[in-house]
Amino acid sequence: MIIVNAKAKTNSETIEALKDIINTLEIETKKERGCLEYAFSVDINNPNIVRITELWEDLNSLQDHLETKHVEIFRDALAQNPMDVEAHFYESKEIDYPG
Q1: Residue 94, Cβ neighbours under 10 Å: how many?
Q2: Residue 75 phi, psi (nearest 5)
Q3: Do residues 93 and 1 touch, judged by C-beta distance below 8 A?
Q4: Among 34, 94, 19, which residue's Cα sits nearest to residue 66?
Q5: pLDDT in tens, 24-72
Q6: Looking at domain 2-91, which of 3.30.360.10, 3.30.70.100, 3.20.20.70, 3.40.50.720 is its CATH number?
Q7: Where does residue 66 rank: exposed (0-12), middle (13-18), buried (19+ CB within 10 A)?
Q8: Based on the number of CB atoms within 10 Å of its own CB, is 25 exposed (0-12), middle (13-18) or buried (19 or more)?
Q9: pTM attached to this predicted model
């Protein structure tokens, strides 16, 4: 499994400008082969932080996702409404609850 954990520092104006594009991106991405989870969320303690969580079956699925039209549209929108994004990518396997 591939995990993407990203954090974007931004402001309310940028979030509002990107809201519809992000909504479409989430809807379309969740239809993709290999997508297990894909979500944007606003940090409850800092509304200028957006967290992006992605779970993919494998690296090929993530790579295919990055070539889609909806990702291209999102990237174009980010160029006009920049966010300071820090993303980390992990290969992992699920384990049972340890408690």
Answers
A1: 7
A2: -60, -40
A3: yes
A4: 34
A5: 999 999 999 999 999 999 999 999 999 999 999 999 999 999 999 999 9
A6: 3.30.70.100
A7: exposed
A8: buried
A9: 0.90
* pLDDT range class, residue 17, cuts 50, 70, 90: very high
Scanning the structure block, which residue is given the tokens 């300071």? Answer: 84
The dihedral region occupied by 53, where left means phi > 0, alpha psi between -120 and 50, and beta the remainder, is: beta
| Domain-wise residue ranges, the chain | 2-91
Structure tokens, 43: 């940090």
Amino acid letter for position 33: R
* CB neighbours of residue 62 within 10 Å: 19
| Band of residue 21 on the pLDDT scale cut at 50, 70, 90 | very high
Strands (E), 10-72: 35-43, 46-56
